[in-house]
Write a structure and sequence with these properties.
Length: 453
């Protein structure tokens, strides 16, 4: 069956039918579609559109349909154009012609928008739970890291020493922002379209505020034209998910590098590594490479939907049928990635000595400049002096700690014998004690703040 056809004299071409049908995608919203229909039947009953016995019959039939979906017993028919058609077709089989009254005052335009929003309101908490599990893994590693120090990098060049715990937490906070974005999105998703009709609003005197409340929405949409066309929430959801993909890609890129023989800062558990069909020695970080790769796919989903939305001429256009597939796929992608990355992080092994050995005295060049700042010399001058020390040490092929005191004093008479203390990487770390810094106390404060202590 179709929910339209009276004005047509021919059946839809079979290829056109296949193109037009959205059931392969929107059947994912089956439960939401039934829930919306139950609430709509209640609203029609309260508006005196449905008699008591009609309302009871429809409600009972829809409850049966819902149970069939929940148990996996629902059978789709070749004639089901979309999930709305499938539900009404099955309801008709169960209760007869009374099922035809359910769609009074309702369009698939407001119906599908309602289903989609209901689905998203239920998906966001599921994603949030997966976020929290990964954050817990990062936090646990930060706490285990203790006083382990490692090189910090800018431009992929050794920059300054940092605590490993500080590095782990640098990936915790972006995920917190991701969670905040999704939580904030809820208020823009929680707007009920049902009752907007195809575009002009429903002629049925339903109480849309009560209808919104019954379905768990915060409010009813204020404008029917906007309501059936609005897919801002879908684009924003994809942006949120894409930002998460980018954050996970950054983490993955660093893990891929740091598990390589060239760095050797970490070793992945065998449970989260793969091998080579040719080279027996290989231990590959495929789960992180796949995560990095899927970030590009997520970006494509976002830009694809934005391109679809950019020039639609009407309130509802069939182009909007393309809104759900990327949202569903993006959600599935994150729900596949997040637990795997959490497991890989939980079981990763850090190599503290390898990290320590990668720190050289040149990484304390800024500390050298700061030493002279402590002698009341302007930083711009001390920066140049420290740079000359770096150049001289490089020319002599020695470390900064190997330059003689005379060499330092030739650069500035302010240097004294205690200058060599600046080349202790832990002391360098401990100087960064301001809020957000890499010192032990600062990191402890970060952890306390995260835990709400």
């Amino acid at each position: 069956m179709t929910l339209w056809g009276g004005r047509f004299t021919q059946s839809l071409d079979s290829l056109a039918w296949a193109l037009n049908s959205s059931l392969p995608v929107d059947q994912r919203m089956a439960i939401q579609d039934v829930d919306g229909s139950i609430a709509w039947a209640d609203a029609l009953h309260k508006a005196n559109i449905l008699l008591d016995e009609e309302h009871a019959s429809i409600s009972l039939g829809l409850a049966t349909v819902k149970e069939e979906f929940a148990s996996g017993q629902f059978s789709f028919a070749p004639s089901d154009e979309d999930i709305h058609t499938a539900v009404e077709r099955r309801l008709t089989e169960l209760i007869g012609v009374t099922a035809g009254k359910l769609h009074t005052g309702r369009s698939r335009n407001d119906q599908v928008a309602t289903d989609f929003r209901l689905w998203m309101l239920q998906a966001i908490p599921e994603l949030d739970s997966a976020f929290k599990n990964l954050q817990s893994a990062l936090l646990e590693q930060a706490e285990l890291a203790g006083e382990t120090i490692m090189p910090g990098y800018t431009h992929l060049q050794r920059a300054q020493p940092i605590l490993l715990s500080h590095w782990w937490l640098s990936h915790y906070h972006p995920l917190e922002r991701d969670r905040e974005r999704l939580a904030d999105l809820v208020k823009r998703v929680s707007i009920l379209p049902l009752g907007s009709g195809a575009l002009a609003g429903t002629p049925v005197p339903v109480d849309r505020a009560a209808l919104a409340e019954s379905l768990g929405f915060a409010v009813a949409s204020p404008n029917s034209l906007d309501s059936v066309s609005d897919r801002d929430f879908a684009a924003e959801f994809l942006f949120c998910v894409t930002m998460t993909g980018i954050h996970l890609s950054k983490l993955s890129e660093q893990i891929v590098l740091y598990t390589s023989a060239e760095f050797g800062f970490f070793e992945l558990s065998d449970a989260f590594s793969t091998g080579s069909s040719l080279m027996p020695q290989k231990k590959n970080p495929d789960v992180f490479e796949l995560t990095r790769g899927k970030a590009g796919t997520l970006i494509g989903m976002l830009t694809g939907l934005l391109a679809t939305l950019k020039g639609l001429p009407s309130t509802y256009d069939k182009d909007l049928q393309e809104d759900k597939a990327p949202v569903f796929a993006a959600t599935d992608t994150l729900l596949a990635i997040l637990p795997v990355i959490a497991g890989a992080i939980n079981t990763i092994t850090a190599k503290p000595q390898r990290m320590r050995n990668a720190i050289d005295s040149f990484m304390m060049a800024t500390d050298l400049a700061d030493y002279l700042v402590g002698k009341r010399i302007p930083f711009r001058e001390t920066h140049a002096i420290a740079g000359k020390a770096v150049r001289e040490a490089g020319e002599k092929k020695v470390g900064l700690e190997e330059l003689s005191l005379e060499a330092y004093q030739a650069l500035s008479p302010a240097f004294e014998a205690d200058v060599y203390q600046v080349f202790d990487p832990m002391k360098s770390v401990e100087k960064r004690n301001a809020i957000g810094g890499t010192s032990l106390q600062s990191v402890k404060n970060q952890i306390k703040q995260i835990k709400g202590e």
